[in-house]
Amino acid sequence: ETLLVKHARHRVPQLAATLGLANLVVLASLIGYAILHRKPLWAMFRSEYSLATWFSSVQLVLLALVAYTIYNVLVLSRQQQESPVRHRWAWAVVALGFVVLALDERFGIPEALRDYLFGPAGLWADSAWFIPGDAGLYLFFIIGLLFSPFLLGERRQARKALPMFVLALLLTFIVLLIDSLNDSTMYTWPAWRFWDYTFEEMGEIWAELLFLLAFLRVL
């Protein structure tokens, strides 16, 4: 068991470094492709089936796996009376939530909620700022916030994870805000295509990376 712990402590920092490098490679690849084909950078992020979208799905699956691993470690520790954590179930729920978000990259769950539930219900229908029905985006965010206090309960061990976790939440909220703004609002922004396409997609990917680094720190 001691050898296993030492092995994990050696491998987790390597995994964190690999994830950071992978994010830089994806961004560099998109920039390089845009330059070689003389396309604007924002065009690389406009499609729902771009490299950025695929990579985002991969990171969301990794988040689910890490969260579920933490859940299993806490279950074993609890059985051996080594851990006082009472809210280990939250990690299993969060793992399931990230699986749903990974599927969303392919099936557009918030868009479906907007078109078939919140839109017909008239939510934000009279707003001059937001897309009618896009309140569903914030529903996912609020549900995530409700589970946040349980995830970093062991302050002694997860103290260094907290800044990354909070920054990831902040970046996620900014991305959600941009995603929910209607076109007439976005068109008034300088370089609006950068914010609406490039920053939104890369901000989402970087938020996932910060969540991953925070979870790995907890692990």
Keywords:
0% strand; mainly alpha
Number of helices: 9
- Which range best describes the helical content: under 10%, 10-25%, 25-40%, 40-55%, 55-70% or over 70%? over 70%
Radius of gyration: 19 Å
Instruction: Report, as a whole number of angstroms, the end-to-end distance.
Output: 15 Å
Assembly state: single chain
What's the rounded overall pLDDT mean?
80
Number of strands: 0
Low-confidence region ranges? none
The portion of residues forming beta strands comes to: under 5%
H/E element order: HHHHHHHHH
Based on CA inertia axes, which overall geometry fits?
globular
- The secondary structure category is mainly alpha
Largest sheet, strands/sense/barrel: none
Give a topology summary.
Blueprint: H1 2-36, H2 51-79, H3 89-107, H4 109-118, H5 135-151, H6 155-158, H7 161-180, H8 183-186, H9 192-218
Summary?
This protein has 219 residues and is mainly alpha-helical. The protein is built from 9 helices and no strands.
Describe the fold and architecture.
The protein has 219 residues and is mostly helical. It has 9 helices and no strands. It is globular. The two termini are 15 Å apart. The mean pLDDT is 80. The chain has helices at residues 2-36, 51-79, 89-107, 109-118, 135-151, 155-158, 161-180, 183-186, 192-218. Helix 2 (51-79) runs antiparallel to helix 3, helix 5 (135-151) runs antiparallel to helix 7 and helix 7 (161-180) packs antiparallel against helix 9 (192-218).
